[in-house]
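Lab notes, practical 5.
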Amino acid sequence: MPGDARSIEVVDTPIGRLGVEATAVGVSRVRLPGDRVDQCVGDVTPLGRSAAAQLAEYARGEREEFDLPLDWEGVRPEHREVLEALCTVAPYGRTVTYGELAARAGVEDPREIGVHMATNPFPILIPCHRVVASDGLGGYGGGLELKRRLLELEGALPPPLDLGGV
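Output from the prediction step:
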């Protein structure tokens, strides 16, 4: 199969160490800080180097969009549809709620969106950090501190809740 051979690149960025796995088809996975990035070993390819460089540029605030092919092998069609919908409704600097994304992606239960985001193989490239709860940040596979940092980097942090002086 064309996507079988994998290359792996690890890059230190201002948001932490990221790992990028790529096949001949495209990026197959992005590993966030703490996601066993140090265990990433393998050959480096031009695509892996490009992906790592683009992620580093993003983390330095120098890039808002990525120009990388993705290898969707093994991603269920309904999962891919939700992830692709996310890219159209939450551009750089904007957030979308789980409910809004569910409505746009045709998903009946907004809680399912959390499952789709938690299993996103391309975090940052497919910006699951931009999906927030209607009453706050919601969750994030890389941890809430990283989610907060990514949203701050993009100038997209949702306003704090008004708890009426509580």
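Observations recorded by the TA: The chain has two domains: 7-59, 77-154. The chain has a mean pLDDT of 88.
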